[in-house]
Amino acid sequence: MNNSAGNTGRVLWAGLRALLVLTVVCGVLYPLAVTGAAQVAFPGKANGSEIEDASGRVVGSELIGQRYDLPPADGEETPSPDLRWFQPRPSNGLGTNSVNTQYSLLLSGATNRAGDNADLIQWVEDAKAAVVEDNSTATYEVKPADVPADAVTSSGSGLDPHISPAYAMLQAHRVAERNELDAAVVEKLVDDHTDGRFLGFVGEPRVNVLKLNIALKDLVARD
Length: 223
Hints:
Elements: H1 2-41, H2 43-46, E1 50-52, E2 58-61, H3 118-135, E3 162-163, H4 165-178, H5 183-192, E4 194-195, E5 206-208, H6 209-222
Antiparallel strand pairs: 1-2, 3-5, 4-5
Helix pairs in contact: 4-5
């Protein structure tokens, strides 16, 4: 019995030592090493790909899209978009946060509705009509056939920070009119903030909406 108790004690002590060693190695040393290497090699990405405005204030992340809405009117459940700014893709996602009520968060995710789903078809039709109405100006008419797919559909995450150059150009005339700018100047702003394919062949050209709107803000301030 004494031998059995002694063997059990040795096994427990060995297990405890292994737990302590693995906790220090995997829970302390390894995370510190990875964090240190990331801070040295990729400090921007390691800190969340933060984007600063002209004053140096962090205004968002390069990786997460954000909306540009007007303050909701009385009795209005869904705020209207602020048409002075370039608008991102729709963000239907999975709804809003209902657990941590300290912050109003949009939960990431897709609707998972099939292409022939009646609700999805109606959403797309309504979104297309809104894009045509919002972006048509006195001198520029948007036709339904001109509306690109990313203007009326959300991404898989619902938080895509990019839009296509076609959607950005479609908005340029409206943005120019609302900010009393020349349309050619705003179109050049879009061109300057269009990123090409990764390595020249991976993915599609894209425009980061937050970066574009920061540049627009600076342009309006200088004008």
